[in-house]
Amino acid sequence: MAIVDITIIPIGTNEPSVSQYVAEIHQLLETYNDKVKYQLTPMSTIIEGELSVLFEVIQALHEVPFSKGVQRVATNIRIDDRRDKQLIMSEKIRSVEGKLNKS
User: In what residue span(s) does the Thiamine-binding protein domain sit (predicted)?
Assistant: First the structure.
């Protein structure tokens, strides 16, 4: 399992807000519900799953703004792929919270 932080930035839109693109990207992401887990954040989306599936999902999500007429899209991805143990979003958060509670 890997965790990917993805930010898709449509460039050259007619307005500064991109929330409509984010909503459409998440509608597509919902179709992968059986393959990945995901979490929307104020600045990006976190996706968890098998790395090969994540690459498939990333490519599909990257295409969404193009399908809406955008001519340029910048997609930033950051991959956390730990091989020595199972890596899941909720456990990473619990680990940090546990350390905060010890203080």
Answer: 4-97
Q: What backbone torsions phi and psi does residue 3 show, to the nearest 5 degrees?
A: -125, 130
Pair of tokens at residue 43 = 């600045």
pLDDT at 52: 96
User: In degrees, to the nearest 5, what angle opens at C-alpha 77 toward C-alphas 73 and 78?
Assistant: 165
What DSSP assignment string belongs to the chain? -EEEEEEEEEES-SSS--HHHHHHHHHHHHTTTTT-EEEE-SS-EEEEE-HHHHHHHHHHHHHHHHHTT-SEEEEEEEEE--SSS---HHHHHHHHHHHHHH-
Predicted TM-score (pTM) of this structure: 0.88
Q: CATH classification of 2-102 is 3.30.70.930, yes or no?
A: yes
Residue 67 pLDDT > 90: yes
For residue 12, is it left (φ>0), alpha (ψ between -120 and 50) or beta?
left
